[in-house]
Design a protein that fits this description.
Pfam families: ArdcN, MPTase-PolyVal. The protein has about 290 residues and is α+β, with helices and mostly antiparallel strands. The protein has 8 helices and 8 strands; from the N terminus they run ααβαββββαβββαααα.
C-alpha cells in the first residue's frame, strides 16, 4: 500500500509534468458543448471535488474524452460492463480520518489520504445507456452577455468597477478593478478574469481569511494565484461556461512550478482552498434563488 506521501507526490509530479509541457490541467477542456456536467462525476452522479476535479480534467483533456463520468473497475463490473484491455486508469484520492485503537474516543482523529484508480466511461464497454450523453453542436457565435453568469456575479455583492488598465482585486477599498468590457476578446476571457479576481476577493479577512500579503515572486503570492486560477476554473465549470485563463501565464507557471517542486502537498492544498472559494461564491447565488 502506498504511503500518503507517495500519493501526494504522484499527484504533484503529474501536475508539474503537464505544466512544464504547457498544459494547464484546471482548464475545462469541453469547449463549445453543453454536456450534462462540466465537473467530473462519480458513477452515482455525485460530483468530484478538490484535487480530484483537477486530476480528472487533466486526464480527460489529454485523452480527448467527451464524457465526464468516472468509475472504478469494480463499479463497472457491477454494472455488467468491462474496462477495455490495455486502458490506463486515472489516480484520484479519498480523504478521511481514523482514530487508532489505542487512543481514547475523544482524542483527535488522524487525517488520511488514500489513492485509487478510476476510468472514464469512454474506456468501458457495455455500460447502460444512461452513462452516454449525445453531443451537442457548438454555438457559431459567442454571446457577449450570459444572463445567468451575470446574475451569479451580482449575487456576490462584490464591488466591480470597469475602466481600469488592468484586472486586480484591491484589498484596501475591497473592490475589483476591471478593464472596459469591450476590451476583452470574448465573454470567455471576461468571465474567466472576473472569477479569478473574485477568487482573490473571497480571501479577504471578513470572508475566507487567506494571506493576501504576498509580493510577486514569493511563495505566498504564487499560492494565492494558483488558488484564484483553479477556483475560476471550478466556478466556470459550475456555471457551464468555458474557462480560459488570463495572459502572462508563462511567468505565473514559473512561479507555480517553484512552489509545487518545493512542496508536494501544495497543489492539493490549493485545489482544496479553490473548492472552498467556489463553495463560498455559490452560496450567494443559492441564498438569492
Amino acid at each position: 500500500m502506498q504511503s500518503v506521501k507517495d500519493t501526494y507526490q504522484r499527484i504533484t509530479d503529474t501536475i508539474i509534468q503537464q505544466l512544464e509541457a504547457g498544459t494547464k490541467p484546471w482548464i475545462w477542456p469541453w469547449r463549445g458543448n453543453s454536456r450534462r456536467s462540466a465537473t467530473p462525476l462519480r458513477a452515482s452522479g455525485e460530483a468530484y471535488r478538490g484535487i480530484n476535479v483537477v486530476m480528472l480534467w487533466l486526464s480527460g483533456q489529454l485523452a480527448g474524452y467527451d464524457e465526464n463520468t468516472w468509475m472504478t473497475y469494480r463499479q463497472a463490473q457491477e454494472l455488467g460492463a468491462q474496462v477495455r484491455k490495455g486502458e490506463q486508469g486515472t489516480l484520484v484520492v479519498k480523504y478521511g480520518t481514523f482514530t487508532p485503537k489505542e487512543q481514547e474516543a475523544d482524542d483527535r482523529a488522524i487525517p488520511y489520504l488514500k489513492g485509487y484508480t478510476v476510468f472514464n466511461v469512454e474506456q468501458i464497454d457495455n455500460l447502460p445507456d444512461r452513462f452516454k450523453s449525445p453531443a451537442e453542436a457548438a454555438p457559431i457565435e459567442p454571446v457577449p452577455v450570459i444572463d445567468h453568469v451575470e446574475t451569479f456575479i451580482r449575487a456576490t455583492g462584490a464591488k466591480i468597477a470597469y475602466g481600469g488598465k488592468q484586472a486586480c482585486y484591491r484589498p484596501g477599498p475591497d473592490d475589483i478593478q476591471m478593464p472596459e468590457r469591450g476590451r476583452f476578446l470574448s465573454e470567455v476571457h471576461l468571465y474567466s478574469t472576473i472569477f479569478h479576481e473574485l477568487g482573490h476577493w473571497s480571501g479577504a479577512k471578513s470572508r475566507l481569511d487567506r494571506d493576501l500579503s504576498g509580493r510577486f515572486g514569493s511563495e505566498t503570492y504564487a499560492m494565492e494565484e494558483l488558488i484564484a486560477e483553479i477556483s475560476a476554473a471550478f466556478v466556470c465549470a459550475d456555471l457551464g461556461i468555458e474557462h480560459d485563463p488570463r495572459d502572462n501565464t508563462a511567468t505565473y507557471v514559473e512561479n507555480w512550478l517553484k512552489v509545487l517542486k518545493q512542496d508536494s502537498r501544495a497543489v492539493i492544498t490549493a485545489a482544496a482552498k479553490a473548492q472552498a472559494v467556489a463553495d463560498y461564491l455559490r452560496q450567494f447565488s443559492s441564498s438569492t434563488g
